[in-house]
Specification:
The complex is a heterotrimer of chains A (252), B (285) and C (220).
Chain A (H helix, E strand, L loop, with lengths): L3 E12 L2 E12 L3 E5 L6 H8 L9 E9 L2 E2 L5 H7 E4 L11 H5 L1 H5 L6 H14 L3 H4 L12 H14 L4 E5 L7 H14 L4 E5 L3 H7 L2 E6 L2 E7 H6 L4 H7 L5
Parallel strand pairs in A: 3-8, 3-9, 6-7, 7-8
Antiparallel strand pairs in A: 1-2, 1-4, 4-5, 9-10
Helix pairs in contact in A: 5-7, 7-8
Chain B lengths: L5 H40 L5 H5 L13 H31 L4 H15 L2 H16 L4 H26 L2 H9 L4 H29 L3 H4 L19 H9 L4 H31 L5
Chain C lengths: L1 H33 L4 H31 L3 H33 L6 H6 L2 H21 L2 H31 L4 H33 L10
The chains are: A alpha/beta (252), B mainly alpha (285), C mainly alpha (220).
Chain lengths: 252, 285, 220
């Protein structure tokens, strides 16, 4: 597939005796939004977190198979380098509570010990906040604690924090499930804007969200990849019956 | 027609009132005891609060006046040194515990900390005597500090662990997902976020050992003279309270009351600090 | 929701293109019939393929919008009405094409006197006038204008009803002219159907703009 940025080869993930991801082969296209959807326990979040090797933190997790970022194998890379190229936004907004808004945006650099002068810092922060449409709302209050922001603003701040590192891929784990509809709409608009510069992979429980914002949709079920196609095709005429049952709400 | 048991309602209301009053009376009694002690302490000790108490060492028997400067300095040395030993160690163990919850080793450490917490302070004193005082042949402030440090560890460890465990994992993940190393994540995110609880744990530890005498009996021992040398034995406030209170001299009794007042005031201030910092440094996440 | 708005705007744009295409077809049909201009007939035939393609495109776009965006309220009504307007426009295009073929079929053209008697020109003019009003009503979401069209349709119906009688009289008065009268009555009926389709479209515009269903009821 042309423009592939990520590729998995027989990815299998188990937690102890529990095989959660059963051998996935898929390719993610560059500068597009790919949605992972499926019922709870289907493995979609597990797969997402294996891309930036967060499972390294979980001793019970065993990740087999290969993941390639461009043509480099993810397991062969230094984990910290990988995570600078693959950013992540989590389900509940999690700005660092001891840091101000400014410090949060730039935290990727400070936490990595990367030295940048004040001028560069200001530029990076302004650029990132503008990208997430937060600049106008906070530009006069950059030194305020990040926890003073609303939930939707905090989540946009987390996206800014990820974007400031100029990653190649951004992973989003149900980024709007903790937000109200208006904030959700703002984040969706934001993701729509971002995809011209970044590859986005989003795990979502919300099928309508997957339909609205993604270019390609992958449907997972009990650790298998049942369907993976253009979003339009998946939602107008899915090939797999289980996919159809899931999206029409006839599941279970 | 809604189901209302009007007959039983009156009985229940009365029971409710009796119970509330009972709780109130018990609470009041506890508070009353505390206030009575403090009041009495204040009454007896306020008379001996003078400049001499704070600036002079003890006078020889027979001479009136004098103070407990040596004990005040001694207490400070022993407590501060104890804190310097206990805090880094305790916080590190607490960190380890928080990270490795549910694992075998951490379960054992938990048990060990609980046991340590329950060991009588005199026993700790004796053990340090055997380990340090006997081989070196000297009583010293630092051996007393070590004994106190051991006693401070359980509250510091427990508080650190509990504070860090409350921090959502997602915060740690967010830091790691940015490419941060474990070390940086701990120092720049976890510890600063938990500083309120960790600090409280340290102050609780200090408050606990500030008034201890038993572990110091065979370690710091006592010293009527003023010294800043940690290799030498020192007196501490609780020790001199004990010594002076059990003496037959009225003058010394007076000094003992003064010392008691100072000690209790110190502990009340520490507790107030804990309360203030808990609310001020409470980090929302 | 920027994304949805972009897609809705694209749909609206395509519908306007469809309106314009079909209007062109009707105008050409008029030219073909009234002026007996056969060159237009070929053009109509070519454009008919475009019209059909566009109908499919709009249908597909509506399907995508419904599947991907689960629109509600005015967005949903717009898409539902777009689907129906689409069909009606395509039928109008078909009618224009049929009229053109019938003109081409009757090689020497139709009897000018008959055409005048039955007010063919007027009928066409009225239908085109209705069409233009309708286009405006769509662009401006002007439901008053749309309601006007409902009334105008009655006028066309009157003319086409009369045309049957006139044609009948004509064919009895001028023997041998029945060969002309029958196709011309057909054509007039087709013009009436254009009016009916325009009326349907007007009802759909009122539906989506006001959420009022005027189908199958007397004009309000």
């Amino acid at each position: 597939m042309e423009g592939t940025i990520l590729r998995t080869e027989n990815l299998r993930i188990s937690f102890g005796d529990n095989l959660v991801v059963k051998g996935i082969n898929m390719e993610i296209a560059e500068k597009q939004v790919t949605a992972f959807m499926g019922p709870s326990g289907c493995g979609k979040t597990t797969i997402l977190r294996s891309i930036n090797r967060l499972h390294d933190l979980t001793p019970e997790a065993k990740v087999e198979g290969k993941i390639f970022l461009h043509s480099e194998e993810v397991n062969g890379m230094e984990a910290m380098t990988l995570r600078r190229r693959v950013g992540m936004v989590f389900q509940r907004p999690n700005p660092f509570p001891t840091m101000s808004i400014f410090e949060n945006v730039i935290s990727g650099f400070t936490l990595n010990g990367i030295k940048i002068n004040k001028q560069e810092k200001n530029e990076i922060v302004e650029d990132a906040l503008k990208k997430v449409a937060l600049w106008d709302e906070v530009k006069d209050n950059l030194n305020k604690k990040s926890t003073a922001l609303s939930g939707g603003q905090q989540q946009r701040l987390c996206v800014a924090r990820a974007v400031a590192m100029k990653p190649e891929v951004i992973l989003l784990d149900e980024p709007t499930s903790a937000l109200d509809p208006l904030s959700t709409a703002k984040i969706e608009d934001l993701l729509y804007e971002l995809k011209s510069n970044y590859t986005l992979i989003i795990v979502t429980h919300n099928m309508q969200q997957a339909a609205r914002i993604s270019d390609r949709t992958a449907f997972f079920y009990l650790g298998d990849l049942l369907e993976y196609d253009d979003t339009k095709k998946v939602f107008t005429n899915p090939k797999n019956e289980k996919t159809q049952n899931y999206i029409t709400g006839r599941f279970g | 027609m809604a189901l209302i048991d009007t007959k039983g309602l009156r009985g229940r209301r009365i029971k409710d009132r009796i119970f509330s009053s009972f709780v109130w009376i018990l609470t009041f009694s506890c508070l009353a005891v505390v206030f009575i002690i403090l009041f009495y302490l204040f009454k007896m000790g306020i008379g001996s609060l003078n400049w001499a108490l704070f600036t002079q060492g003890p006078k020889p028997v027979g001479e009136s006046g004098g103070g407990i400067l040596n004990a005040i300095v001694g207490s400070l040395i022993v407590v501060v040194l104890g804190a310097i030993i206990a805090i880094p160690l305790g916080v590190s163990v607490g960190l380890y515990q928080a990270d490795h919850r549910g694992r075998r080793i951490s379960d054992w450490v938990s048990v060990a900390v609980d046991v340590l917490n329950g060991i009588p302070s005199i026993v700790i004193g004796i053990v340090i005597y055997v380990w340090i005082v006997k081989p070196t042949g000297k009583f010293s402030a630092y051996s007393g500090s070590i004994a106190l440090a051991i006693m401070m560890l359980p509250p510091i460890i427990k508080n650190t662990e509990e504070t860090l465990v409350l921090i959502p994992t997602t915060l740690k993940e967010a830091s790691l997902a940015l490419g941060a190393s474990y070390y940086r994540t701990t120092m720049k995110i976890l510890l600063p976020t938990g500083i309120g609880g960790i600090f409280s744990g340290c102050i609780i530890g200090i408050a606990r050992i500030a008034g201890e005498v038993a572990p110091l009996l065979f370690t710091a021992f006592g010293n009527p003279g003023l010294t800043f040398n940690i290799l030498k034995p020192v007196d501490t406030i609780p020790k001199v309270i004990f010594t002076y209170a059990s003496s037959p001299y009225d003058d010394w009794h007076r000094i003992a009351w003064g010392g008691s007042l100072i000690l209790v005031t110190f502990i009340i201030v520490l507790n107030a600090i804990i309360k203030i910092f808990e609310s001020k440094w409470k980090v929302q996440f | 929701m920027e994304h949805l708005q972009n897609e809705m705007d694209a749909l609206r744009k395509e519908m306007i293109e469809m309106y314009k295409l079909v209007q062109l077809q009707v105008e050409r049909a008029q030219t073909a019939l009234i002026d007996n201009n056969l060159s237009v007939v070929q053009e109509i035939g070519n454009t008919e393929k475009l019209v059909n393609a566009k109908e499919l495109q709009i249908d597909s776009r509506c399907e995508t919008l419904l599947a991907l965006f689960t629109p509600v309220a005015v967005d949903l009504r717009f898409i539902l009405s777009a689907l129906k307007i689409n069909i009606n426009l395509e039928r109008i295009g078909d009618i224009a094409d049929n009229i053109a073929r019938m003109v081409a079929h009757s090689k020497p053209g139709f009897d000018r006197e008959l055409l005048e008697k039955i007010n063919a020109k007027q009928a066409f003019a009225m239908s085109l006038d209705m069409y233009k009003c309708l286009f405006q009503a769509f662009e401006k979401e002007d439901t008053l204008l749309a309601r006007d069209i409902l009334i105008k349709d009655e006028a066309i119906d009157t003319i086409t009803d009369e045309s049957v009688v006139i044609a009948e009289e004509y064919s009895t008065s001028k023997p041998g002219s029945i060969g002309q009268a029958i196709p011309i009555i057909s054509i007039m009926k087709m013009v009436e159907r254009i009016g009916d389709h325009l009326k349907n479209i007007a009802e759909e515009i009122i539906f989506y703009a006001e959420a009022r269903v005027l189908k199958h009821s007397s004009p309000k």
